[in-house]
Amino acid sequence: MPVRRHSIPASLPALSNAEIADRLASFAQLLSARKENPYKVKAYQRAAARIRHLSESLDEMVRNDEDLTQFAGIGEAIASAIREIVRTGSLSKLETLRAGAAPALASISQYPRLDPKRVVRVYKKLGLSTVEELRERLEKGEIDKVLGSRMAYHIRQGLTETHAMLLYHADRLHEAIEEFLIGRCGVRRVDVAGSYRRRLEIVEELVFVIDADDFGSVVDRMQRYGGRTPLVSSQNGHAVFALSSGILLRLQHAGKENWGYHLVACTGSKAHLNKLASVCGPRSALQLKHCESETALYRSCGVQYIEPELREGHDEVDRAKAGTLPKLVTIAEIRGDLHAHSLSSDGADSIDDMAEAARERGYEYIGISDHSQSLKIARGVSVEDLRAQIRFIDKLNGRLRGIRVLKSSEVDILVDGSLDYPDDLLKELDYTVCSIHSRFALGREAQTERLLRAMDNRYCNILGHATGRLLLKRPGYQIDEDRVIAHARENGCFLEINSSPDRLDVCADTARKAAAAGVLISISTDSHSTGELDLIRCGMDQARRAGLEQTEVLNCLSWAKLWRLFRR
Ligand SMILES: [Zn+2]
Ligand SMILES: [Zn+2]
Fold it and tell me: What is the pLDDT of residue 39?
């Protein structure tokens, strides 16, 4: 195929994928402000997000006349928008929308992560017209006060330059960078480190320890990743880049003889490394030990090997010294899933299919916890339908082999703390997951009371996603977690680590506290389809960060033991 480079003026600078993505995201934002087709808005938003993760340079591909629709999420319309951006430096339909938008709205479009409809509401309420005023009011706490903490949180996220990413959104990015380092940069060996390796639910950087003959040339080549990846700093075998997805990339050069040291130093949190230094001597001395592996390094300090998920500076170094580190729970020890939806509410698969998928994963049981009657937006199940579902599951269990379906429900906790079904129906279930899905702004005291009253009901077993947080979207509602944990213990209730990548609720710290108080934790997926059962790995990461052992996890128990715990 002839290469048609002539269509692009030579003077036009090459664009990075990030710059192309910014324009698509701004376009989506203005479309959304005009209340245009939400599918179209989503398509542009998704394409922008996808592009930020690509290692190939779109600019180069357009100049070489390559097909852009080979990437998932880039159809003909978006491909043609990208070609126009590369060929002219701008997107005419974006400029038209900007020109036609009120000045207040046009200024928001420099911050593509702000939701224009919400910001316009803030502008109206507070009489603002510029982003500078918005920022000022945010800093004064006025947005918190007048429009609530969720709105303030959204604005804060939208205005910050430093980005963060859900751990599980970084998976693909991690792979792409690793491939690029090995395939294009002459890197011999690479290990991921940093908070990604510690499985922190939100990451702000990706860190790799690498071995290569010529670190300088790796740094040069890395700057061509995704079209252009600016170098922030480089010295002494350590380089930092600004990735187009908004997070930072750090590369640490290491040789075979000090691999163990660099991997430990690049993985542990500051608190962990300080504690390690207090036990093993300063980092400079550690580096001189010439340990090829982490195990060798920890051993040379007289401590046990510490799993990356534990390297946060809690008590792991002391316990490693005493030889009493927890034996962290693993997926192989999970016997079943206690929170899954089916077609009966807002799930995508039938109970039969969910059961089969659970059996394929080697589980002994799966609990079907569809939404309760009041949750209309998630097609909550009526009293009659739940009674029918109970009879259906009894029959199903009669013919299924190798898997038991548990009769459950994700019962809404109503605003007064009562449960969303009558007791005489709840008692027909094997157990319940009880969750809050409404009235998030009640305030700490009332919200805590609401959870305590729910646990007073003898048919309340597991608190589902107990804080309601959605990572990078909204903070959880306020609760007094010490009181919730104490009440759970007194009443024989359990907490859940919800495995949805954007929930991971309760967080590792709360799970750690609860387990220490003797409250077992359910690691559940909240699956809405068979494939989502695999999200157990996300909840598992957090359980391990909480230091949980098999004996502290509810669904590591067989059904023969479990059902007794559910009878109160
Ligand atoms: Zn829920
Ligand atoms: Zn659910």
Answer: 93
